[in-house]
């Protein structure tokens, strides 16, 4: 019994602290990308062993520190280096003959107001075209492409093998604008992403920020008031007009009081003049009498 205790103590002393082997942030996959919206039966559950073998085709299995399934059908994958983490995000993994996306953050908890990645959709490019030239096109715009996949048709909640022709790219956030109508090689395609300014239709005006080139649904800016032009509130909550009217009323009241005082002073001057006139008229009469 004492031998087991000493052996355990020795192992604890020589073991690496648990936190140090998980210093690389995990990546995530969703079971909904595999099974769709329907829940599989127990015989078709995704297991640790199966997923471990699938990941081994993308990065070496001995580079994997952990696999964890959490509530909601989300899997955490812990690689042991940043290089392996980037590789598995960019290359994705294939599970049950389906290539599924690997997310750098848990997509169930990423805030839409401040996205970690930008989702770009490229349309109208033939399915026979090489995806590599699409990646190179985005890289020429100085975009960092994290991963991409070909969209597949979903029927009754199930993902089919039929491709729609759209390519989905996940990139690091960027500030410049990618045009909507583009020419990639010998093909002409369309690019769409949230917050995109449509240079081909600059007359579109956003009803939220009042800028041109995008709609309210694609706007990430703050609200702008149509009455005063300030940010942070809308016209129905604007107090500028009320304050302006109050200032006008005060100015009008002050002008009225000034006019009243002027009228009173004029009346006083008339009284003084009338009295002085009477005095002048009375003076000669007094002298004659004297």
TrEMBL record:
Which PROSITE patterns did the record assign?
Answer: ZF_CCHC
The record's listing under InterPro entries reads: Znf_CCHC, Znf_CCHC_sf
MF-aspect GO terms: nucleic acid binding; zinc ion binding
- Could you tell me where the Acidic residues compositional bias lies? 252-267
CCHC-type domain: which residues?
224-238
A Pfam match is: zf-CCHC
Sequence segments annotated as region (Disordered) = 245-290
Cite the record's Basic and acidic residues compositional bias ranges. Answer: 279-290
UniProt keyword annotations, A-Z: Metal-binding, Zinc, Zinc-finger
The identity of this protein, by name, is CNBP
């Amino acid at each position: 019994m004492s031998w087991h205790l000493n052996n355990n103590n020795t192992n604890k002393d020589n073991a690496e602290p648990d936190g140090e082997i998980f210093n690389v942030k995990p990546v995530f996959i969703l079971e909904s990308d595999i099974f769709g919206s329907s829940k599989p039966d127990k015989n078709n559950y995704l297991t640790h062993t199966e997923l471990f073998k699938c990941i081994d085709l993308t990065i070496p299995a001995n580079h994997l520190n952990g696999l964890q399934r959490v509530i909601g059908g989300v899997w955490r994958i812990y690689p042991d280096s940043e290089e392996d983490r980037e590789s598995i995000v960019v290359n994705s993994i294939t599970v049950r003959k389906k290539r599924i996306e690997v997310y750098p953050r848990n997509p169930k908890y990423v805030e839409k107001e401040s996205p970690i990645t930008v989702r770009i959709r490229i349309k109208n490019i033939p399915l026979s075209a090489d995806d590599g030239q699409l990646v190179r096109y985005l890289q020429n715009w100085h975009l960092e492409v994290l991963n991409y996949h070909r969209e597949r048709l979903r029927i009754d909640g199930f993902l089919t093998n039929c491709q729609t022709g759209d390519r989905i790219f996940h990139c690091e956030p960027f500030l410049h604008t990618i045009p909507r109508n583009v020419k990639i090689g010998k093909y002409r395609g369309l690019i769409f992403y949230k917050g995109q300014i449509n240079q081909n239709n600059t007359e579109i005006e956003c009803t939220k920020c009042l800028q041109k080139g995008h709609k309210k649904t694609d706007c990430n800016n703050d609200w702008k008031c149509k009455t005063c032009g300030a940010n942070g509130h809308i016209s129905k909550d604007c107090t500028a007009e009320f304050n302006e009217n109050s200032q006008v009323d005060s100015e009008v009241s002050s002008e009225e009081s000034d006019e009243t005082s002027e009228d009173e002073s004029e009346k006083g001057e008339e009284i003084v003049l009338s009295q002085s006139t009477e005095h002048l008229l009375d003076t000669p009469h007094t002298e004659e009498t004297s």
